[in-house]
Amino acid sequence: MAVPDTVTGRYLGGSHVKFSHRSTLVQVGAALVLGGAAVGVAVYWSSPDHPDPCKPATQEAANLTGSNLCKALRKADLPTVLGIPKAKTEFGGAMAQPGANGAEPSVHVLYTAGPYEVIVATHRPGSVKETEKVAGHSATLVTGTAGGRQLYNLVVSYDAAGSGFYSVDVLKTDGTTMTQDDSARLERAVAEKVLPTLPEWK
């Protein structure tokens, strides 16, 4: 996988984001940075009581990206996608990873669904070395460790031009390690449901 050298950005801002899973977001962000890419300091905003966590604070690109991710995950019926149709879904948080050299924001949004945490993020620019196809786009499963946790991140290209890629992560809320097969199966299911609804999808 070709990963951009730096990741930069801001996110929803103000009072529109709640954080109950900061460490998970940081761990996943760190695990995605392989091959010498740099990660900046994560930026957070929190508000546990905001009625609409998906509402962007401004019309800036990073805010709109985060809002789109939040809405797509909210509408995806994650319990059904994950095979737990009676589970409760809840917004879990969002983060950005500031970088350098004018790279676009890397924006991560997390939802919980029953025993799972689901994180979808955008990264640009960047490309994916294809080992499989997901919804017709180049994809591969990246293995990493962070905080003593083994993580399997499914990354999927926006397009063939190297405009950017998505990362999709499904983890257990209790911190137990999932098998590679289970991670890949659930992440593919989420990717096929959520990614084609995002504006960057070509």
UniProtKB/TrEMBL annotation:
Pfam families: DUF6215. This is Secreted protein. The chain crosses the membrane at residues 25-45. Keywords: Membrane, Transmembrane, Transmembrane helix. It comes from the Bacteria.
